């Protein structure tokens, strides 16, 4: 671990970011154009004291989980993120691990979208990042582990995952999920991560086996669907998906499709976050 170099790198990256780039207000009392340490701590979900010790070269070696959180908070590029891992005495994550970290440009877009719900997803449907509006609409879906981090796996193995869509839309949604996974499997032919996920889904769900056997392929770009929110009720949403050039990550943007949905989203923003009942948060946005 190169403590002095790590401290200098983190300090300079913090000072290089404008608050507006991460969705924070640049108030009149701010003495620097960069972020404050407490703002980095808030964005990374760690203590201010630990951020201070990192920047002063007094910390213990951070875990890979903490490094990932810092990389997201500081909007590091892929090269900067790898450098951060090297300075901390860790190998950068393998290709699959890197794919599970939202790209800096997509994170900035999340911040710029403000009150418009938006998410960054991997090509296998893992939610890598959400803005506040998306958390209000769907709950926080960045903390799942194992196969549950994949939306398609939760859909076919957890009955509560389907409750976010009305019954008349569930078959269509299931077909979309399987067709999108089929497209990813084609692009990543021979990838054991994808093959293993498909094998486990086939073993766990007869419904998945039925749809997988139909060999439908479709990468989704735009869609309209109804989301069942536990407090706001039915919301008709337009979903637009923007895909990175390598098709490794996607930015999903959700906008209200009618006046009723728009009014309910505005009310939700005013009310803020309350605890979502277990099993009733949206586990499926795509």
List keywords for this structure.
disordered C terminus; globular; Beta-Lactamase; 13% strand; 286 residues; 434 Repressor (Amino-terminal Domain); 5 strands; 2 domains; 5-stranded antiparallel β-sheet; alpha+beta
What would you note in describing this structure?
The protein is an alpha+beta fold and 286 residues long. The chain has 2 domains: 3-93, lambda repressor-like DNA-binding domains (434 Repressor (Amino-terminal Domain), Orthogonal Bundle), CATH 1.10.260.40; 104-271, Beta-Lactamase (2-Layer Sandwich). Helices cover 47% and strands 13% of the residues. It contains 13 helices and 5 strands. A 5-stranded antiparallel β-sheet has the order 2-1-5-4-3, sandwiched between helices. A hairpin with a 4-residue loop joins strand 1 (118-122) and strand 2 (127-130). Helix 2 crosses helix 3 (48-55), helix 2 packs across helix 4 and helix 11 packs across helix 12 (206-213). The longest helix is centred in the middle third of the chain and has 21 residues, at 167-187. It is globular. The protein starts with a helix and ends in a 15-residue tail after the last helix. 32% of the residues are buried.
Outline:
The chain has 286 residues and is an alpha+beta fold.
Number of helices: 13
Report the CATH topology name of the largest domain.
Beta-Lactamase
Quaternary state of the chains: single chain
Strand content: 5-15%
Q: H/E order of the elements?
A: HHHHHHHEEHHHHHEEEH
Total E-strand runs: 5
Structural class: alpha+beta
Largest sheet: 5 strands, antiparallel
| Number of separate domains | 2
Mean pLDDT: 83
Assigned CATH architecture of the largest domain: 2-Layer Sandwich
Q: How widely separated are the two ends?
A: 40 Å
Task: List low-pLDDT spans.
Answer: 274-286
The percent range for helix content is: 40-55%
Radius of gyration: 20 Å
Shape: globular
